[in-house]
Amino acid sequence: MSERTRSAFPEISLPLLVAFCRTFEEGSFTGAARSLHLRPAAVSRAIAKVEAALGVVLFRRTTRQLRATPAAARYYEEVRPALEMLAGAEERVHERGVVRGRVRISVPTTWGLHRLLPQLEGFAEAHPAVELDILVSNMVVDFVREGCDLAVRLGRIEDESLVSRKLGEATVGMFASPRYLERCGAPSSVEELAEHTLLPFVAPRTGRVFPWIFAGPEEEMIPAGPIRSFEDPQAVIALARGGVGICQIYHFMVEAECREGALVEVLPARNGRKRKFSLVYPKQAVSPAVRAVIDFILSRGR
Fold first, then answer.
1. Does domain 98-168+276-301 fall into CATH 3.40.50.10140?
2. Per the count of CB atoms within 10 A, which of 26, 107, 188, 208 is most buried?
3. Per the database record, which ranges form the HTH lysR-type domain (predicted)?
């Protein structure tokens, strides 16, 4: 161990590390202070002590914003797993059998709101000491920058640094309101879709229009229309329900609308292709709290 390491390490106590991690995750002194039941000034002083001990700037401060530096991201990536290991060690030493900790999960409005979140019934009773923070976003989360432990993602997971566990598959279909179909008629083939008002959705990850897929394994098209939706695919449901045009969306997202008669499935024989959703997390030792969330979610999906 170097002289610098020996002299700096005692200055960075466990509470200071906790304050640093919480500030990195929350993106503000105020948010970190709220979650730690401290005053923002106390958190600010804690960060200043860590910066002084390390000899680096961890956060750039302005009157309106607190921005983590690349050094903060690297430090967080090393420190947070260590804190999780300490928390797990404490549980094992005391043999309490109670899982404790804070877990942050990013979920999309698709599978997240309509499938995963309703399945969390009973989690608080099973793990009363686990705090679960849910980030609802259709963007691909940066695990380090966002401070997330878990995320739900669509499609094939190509990032080899992540563990991927299949949650399920969902079929897609085309839908329109009875009012639209009465006004414009129903298409009798995929080719006739070009004569209708289609409702494209632009994928947040790529910035490109999400392709429509059909029953054939290679059959797809890029829909074109005068109104495009961004960020949240629930927008195309609202447009279709309002009689604006035809959308393609997962069947599970419009079950209620179809049951109520607000939407009607279009060309049902050409629908049915599936897309896969997965629960993903970094390939590193996970805390007992994160493992508890993973196991609970996967058990409910079976």
1. no
2. 107
3. 12-69
Pairing of strands 162-176, 264-266: antiparallel
In the chain, residues under CATH classification 1.10.10.10 are 3-91
**Pairing relationship of beta strands 101-107 and 150-154 according to DSSP bridges:** parallel
Q: How far apart are CA 53 and CA 183, in angstroms?
A: 70
pLDDT, tens digit, 9 for 90 and up, residues 46-96: 999 999 999 999 999 887 789 899 999 989 988 888 887 777 666 555 445
**Could you give the 3-state DSSP secondary structure of residue 107?**
strand
User: 171-274, which class in CATH?
Assistant: alpha beta
CB of 128 closer than 8 Å to CB of 172 = no
The DSSP code for 246 is B
Residue 3's pLDDT is 47
Residue 224: Cβ within 10 Å count:
11
Task: Name the token pair of 208.
Answer: 């490109």
Question: Of 109, 107, 135, 159, which is closest to residue 297 (Cα–Cα)?
Answer: 107
- Which of 127, 126, 121, 79 is CA-nearest to residue 102? 127
